Amino acid sequence: MRALNHPRAEDLDLATVLHALGDPVRLELLRRMAAGDEISCSPEGLIVARSTLSNHWRILREAGITATRISGKTRLISLRRAELDARFPGLLNAVLGEATSILTEL
Amino acid sequence: MRALNHPRAEDLDLATVLHALGDPVRLELLRRMAAGDEISCSPEGLIVARSTLSNHWRILREAGITATRISGKTRLISLRRAELDARFPGLLNAVLGEATSILTEL
């Protein structure tokens, strides 16, 4: 059960998805989700203000890139990989091939 | 000879490229350049203010997506396809596979 609004797969828009991915912090979040597991909305090692991070998650969710699940006091976030791959074949692979960790190297 | 500044291929940044592509007008411009020919900076059939269009071209050029060549009073613009494909393999193909003409259908 999802408590937050998520766009349907058929409503995903390429420009919106690219815009959502076009940010170094959001690319880093994407990379961390790429393994397929749910991750915490406050991942370790990111030097980003909580409100800024919350905004990044919102942009990713509203673009249809992520699914957010509320578990107690935590939000768990996962990549909507299958839906994105079906809608925009090759896009995530191309982006993740390049989206190396740029923030954790700082 | 280029009169405008263009980033070097090795300086292209994925987040910047994705952000530049994350706009419906710029996706339409990309699609029009995809055949490989130079196109005019004022392509037909786009209902976009000249100043807005100029800004879109600037964003694409500064991201390293396009090369602008000045010919008399005209600016001719082409896609830096080979450099983008080398730097971000598969990205343009994935984007162009989806970047159908959304503005000319209006």
UniProtKB/TrEMBL annotation, chains A, B:
Residue ranges annotated for the HTH arsR-type domain, each copy included: 16-93
Matches recorded under SUPFAM superfamilies: Winged helix' DNA-binding domain
Listed Pfam families: HTH_20
InterPro entries on file: ArsR-like_HTH (IPR011991), HTH_ArsR_DNA-bd_dom (IPR001845), WH-like_DNA-bd_sf (IPR036388), WH_DNA-bd_sf (IPR036390)
Stated name of the protein: ArsR/SmtB family transcription factor
Species, as recorded: Streptomyces anandii
